[in-house]
Amino acid sequence: MVIxxxxxxxxxxxxxxxxxxxxxxxxIEEVGDMSAYKKIKDEQxxxxxxxxxxxxxxxxHAHIGITEEKWGTIADDCNEGTxxxxxxxxxxxxxxxxxxxxxDAIKAGITSVMAGPGSANVVGGQFVFxxxxxxxxxxxxxxxxxAMKIAFGENPxxxxxxxxxxxxTRMAVAATLRxxxxxxxxxxxDKESGNFAKEDFEMEPWLPVLxxxxxxxxxxxxxxxILTAIRIAGEFNVDITIDHGTEGHLIVDExxxxxFPVISGTALTARNKLEVQNMNxxxxxxLHKAGILFSxxxxxxxxxxxxxxxxxxxxxxxxxxxxxxxxSITINPARICRVDDMVGSLKKGKHADIAVFSGNPMExxxxxxxxxxxxxxxxxYS
Length: 382
Description:
The protein is α/β, with parallel strands linked by helices and 382 residues long. It contains eleven helices and 16 strands.
């Protein structure tokens, strides 16, 4: 397949005002200016006539398929709220690709997503990075596990505190996580030295975290909770992503010093909890000015996944440069999710995940013309 006459936003190199992209199988084979284009016999040609061509959009924090639309509580498998530490849970075992939200994502040009458990538990379980097209979850995954979910603040406090269970305070939430990481660190030492009796199903999921192969995905809204997440990550020498980071703009210097990225959002909802009273679309701009790697999220279904580019657009409206808005839903989430060797930009050798828009996808009247995943057209506007 070859897409011709497009305004190509590679998200790594400069924008090509009139260019082409050639795919071969599931990968991108060529990206270039139309002046260098040479037709190949029998290949499928898609002439987009000046439309915007971007890498497929990426949602970096969602509960798609695990909290399904239309079915209510019967199809909500997001939180195992019976145990504050559930590291062995795998989102892939609960994600239903038949959730209609997947098609909504595809119609919006979203080709991949980081999906996983919610924030009821101090440790919620393992996230997965996956494509949005498919009927079999095993064939959609490109990274498993992709992150370990942890949570601070109101959600674990109320889940257990309201039932008069531990943990019911921020102190206890932090202590629970420290205790778990301490046990996991000792387990890792014992296993590496051969000084252990048998493998532990609850401890094994921590090994890629302790080896820094995957981050802990830290749900944190309030400034103090963000700082607690950073503090504990430093104590155990592990990586985190700061998910939501609602008050990140209030401690931007401390976040910048930590070097950890922020998955910002969503501000497209009501301030229905105390810890989100300071949420604002200006946060993304402030993070950018401080040199912090960030992406924008809908936290689907908190805000619907198809509004991801609109969330980025509202961040642009509030001071974020336009190009950074596009990066916040393409290459930045790919880097944060550690899959930028595969997706997030238009470059030879990367997955042929491509979205074609009638104009700027961050503008509400823009239409998605084509969504292409692994070199196949999975959506065409009609």
